[in-house]
Amino acid sequence: MKLGIQLNSFDWEGGPERFGRTLADIARTAEEVGFDRIGVADHVWQHPIMGGPVANEPECYTTLAFLAANTERMGLTAMVTGVHFRHPAVLVKTVTTLDVLSGGRGALGIGSGHYEEETRGLGIPYPPQRERYEMLEETVQIALRMWSGEQGDERPFEGKHYRLERPLNLPQSLTRPHPPIMIAGDGEKKTLRLVARYAQACSLRPKPEIPQKLDVLRRHCEEEGRDYEEIEKTCAFAFDVGERGEKVDELVGGLRWLAGMGIETVIGVVPNVDRIRPLAILGSEVIPAVADL
Fold first, then answer.
1. Beta strand pairing status for 232-238 and 75-78?
2. Distance between CA atoms of 179 and 101, rounded to whole angstroms?
3. Percent of the chain at pLDDT exceeding 70
4. Which of 73, 210, 241, 286 places its Cα 20 to 30 Å from the Cα of 279?
5. Is the pTM of this model over 0.90?
């Protein structure tokens, strides 16, 4: 089992004046102790479960670029981009640039989006969910078109929601054939079908229904003529080791539970991550304990 770290709470000691220093310390330590990747929440307001709109929430891709400059090995991804936030071509250009500047470590994490309050508050269009699912599929199609060949498949793209006259993309991504695509969500009829059709990874909720969801994904893969084993099975989780590591055994048990249901990679939120010590405990006691799962 591989472990990644997810940053989605930024009310750190020292406030915004120390954001850069704190973020660099987190990233360098996470890489040093063996985390496989680092993800950043993509919201413009902080989510209600993490403190709500008045809590700190830096912009995702600027933060990922900073992380790229302060690491050498870890993968870099949004957790995850709502399809309504950015025009597909701009999003693909952003992820491509992240991949190039990081030496081939970028990935596209995307979903249909939620948290209507933040978009209404800042004047960002928020179409109905049915339309967002349509936009999601077209966005992934555009990404694959722009990541095709040496400079993109330049034939016009004509979709219901987007029209591109020339999907040119230079510089092209370093990761070939393209940066991995992770589609988040566990909806059985639409989301998992899109995973089977287009993605290299799924992102599921840590619930007992995971085996059922993976069975559905397997059936979609069979219908799409896709190799189910090619898709990385990921899950979000909480990496709470306690103040002094007293919760390590409980956490390892939770990770074994996920592995037993078919999860291969867990991308976790670390309470008090800015204190750095939890990362050191995870690196010394948790990552080695689950490496062979």
1. unpaired
2. 13
3. 100
4. 210
5. yes
